[in-house]
């Protein structure tokens, strides 16, 4: 078995050239020319992203979610609290910060569940998913350009939101599935 992280893996693509295309507040876009395993060359369009955090937060046996408009999809969605990492910020700190900013709840303790890629075909973004169920009520501190509402939903509401397409994003779908497992086994 080959080490999937290794430059010695037979599928590894060696970067020959990187051409920056765009650099914005949240993302950067570059086009890489790569050498394929068969010796040919190809181009890869890559979105650079600082990473993000998301929190599966439970209060009173219900999951905290926020509803907000997502311009890229032109739709309002229900999602677990989440946000982008600030420069130099540790994921755990960002998770605690985002949870409080968006929901008004402070996590007295938080536990890392999983880190996963969102769109590995073209983006390097990683989401660090955390779990918190030891919460205390604080105050919401939304960013200036952030408009959302927060609610605590039951498992039945989560299932209905999925059926209705209100819960549509991968991180929230994963969180709902993990919550189901947690309710059945008591473990994550």
From TrEMBL:
Pfam families, alphabetically?
A: NUDIX
Q: Which GO terms describe its cellular component?
A: cytosol
Which keywords appear in this protein's UniProt record, sorted alphabetically?
Answer: Hydrolase
Q: Which cofactor does it need?
A: Mg(2+)
Recorded hits in SUPFAM superfamilies, A to Z, give:
Nudix (SSF55811)
Sorted alphabetically, the Gene Ontology BP terms of this entry are: nucleoside phosphate metabolic process; ribose phosphate metabolic process
Is Hydrolase one of the keywords UniProt gives this record?
yes
What GO molecular-function term can you cite, just one?
pyrophosphatase activity
For whether the record's keyword set contains Hydrolase, the answer is yes
| Superkingdom of the organism of origin | Bacteria
Domain named Nudix hydrolase: which ranges?
A: 47-175
Per the similarity annotation, which family is this?
A: Belongs to the Nudix hydrolase family.
- Name-wise, this protein is NUDIX hydrolase
Organism field: Cohnella nanjingensis
């Amino acid at each position: 078995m080959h080490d999937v992280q290794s430059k010695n893996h037979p599928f590894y693509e060696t970067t020959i050239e990187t051409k920056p295309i765009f650099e914005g507040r949240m993302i950067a876009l570059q086009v890489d020319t790569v050498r394929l395993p068969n010796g040919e060359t190809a181009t890869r369009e890559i979105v650079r992203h600082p990473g993000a955090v998301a929190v599966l937060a439970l209060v009173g046996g219900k999951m905290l979610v926020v509803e907000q408009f997502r311009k890229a999809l032109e739709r309002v969605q229900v999602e677990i609290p989440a946000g982008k990492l600030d420069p130099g910020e540790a994921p755990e700190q960002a998770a605690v910060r985002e949870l409080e900013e968006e929901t008004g709840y402070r996590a007295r303790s938080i536990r890392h569940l999983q880190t996963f890629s969102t769109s590995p075909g073209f983006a390097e973004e990683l989401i660090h998913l955390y779990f918190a169920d030891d919460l205390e009520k604080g105050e919401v501190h939304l960013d200036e350009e952030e408009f959302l509402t927060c609610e605590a939903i039951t498992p039945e509401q989560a299932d209905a939101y999925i059926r209705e397409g209100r819960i549509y994003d991968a991180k929230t779908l994963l969180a709902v599935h993990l919550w189901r497992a947690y309710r059945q086994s008591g473990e994550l």
